[in-house]
Design goal:
Length: 236
């Protein structure tokens, strides 16, 4: 199964119908709450992931596009889904894509690869630094070159370990990291001392600032989502 589901959509009219005893196994991690003000911001992609996991045969496989925030969320439905993927050993790997891979949204995305027959280790790839920026109408988007696509495919299929690009980890390793699927959290920390020119130093700082800016943007989005969910809590 291959799915690029909508990330957010108002399905409040159907939410109550889905949250039934008959659907408890299908939607094992739960159904997203209905936002008090912006119903259209309901995280419907979480429903798609659960439905796909439930629908796969014993040797089934799936590739699902998800917001990158999903792979590291520390609680909620997101984490429950990841925990099941690991506990039942059905995750084959994750590829985190470059920003602006879609011209019509700034949301960073990753691709979740599920393989219910997978009994080996999991390959995590950080492809966020790949690609080249092109104009797409009034917007800009990042496009992978053919060589970069092949690099990702070969690394994934061969479960190759490449410094600062890919890592191969066990299910136990992921459990120990609170079920995080972010490749960067498993990279070996290395300290190298090299002589560089002032121009090389300036380029490095610019690259670091760009990466930090992307991470801060993602952090802000996660913070806003947490605040929104807290606002939905009711005393009972």
């Amino acid at each position: 199964m291959v799915s690029n589901p909508p990330f957010k959509l108002d399905f409040s009219d159907f939410s109550a119908d889905l949250e039934t005893k008959a659907n408890q196994e299908r939607f094992f991690a739960g159904i997203p709450k209905i936002p008090a003000k912006k119903k259209e911001s309901m995280a419907i992609y979480l429903m798609f992931i659960q439905h796909i996991m439930y629908s796969l045969k014993e040797n089934g496989k799936a590739a699902i596009v998800v917001p990158t925030g999903f792979i590291t969320a520390q609680s909620g439905i997101d984490k429950k889904i990841r925990q099941k993927l690991i506990d039942e050993k059905m995750l084959a790997g994750v590829v985190s894509m470059p920003s602006n891979i879609f011209a019509n949204t700034g949301t960073n995305v990753s691709i979740l690869f599920i393989d219910k027959a997978n009994q080996g280790d999991v390959v995590l790839i950080d492809a966020s630094n790949l690609g080249e920026t092109i104009k797409d109408g009034k917007n800009q988007k990042t496009v992978l070159t053919h060589a970069e696509e092949e690099q990702i495919i070969d690394t994934f299929n061969n479960k190759a370990v490449v410094d600062d690009f890919s890592v191969v980890v066990s299910y136990a390793d992921i459990e120990a990291k609170n079920y995080s699927l972010g490749a960067g959290q498993y990279f070996e920390v290395k300290i190298d001392y090299v002589d560089i020119t002032e121009e090389e130093f300036s380029k490095t700082i610019i690259r670091f600032k760009k990466n930090l800016s992307l991470m801060f943007d993602e952090s802000q989005k996660n913070g806003e989502e947490i605040i929104a969910r807290l606002s939905e809590l009711k005393y009972e």
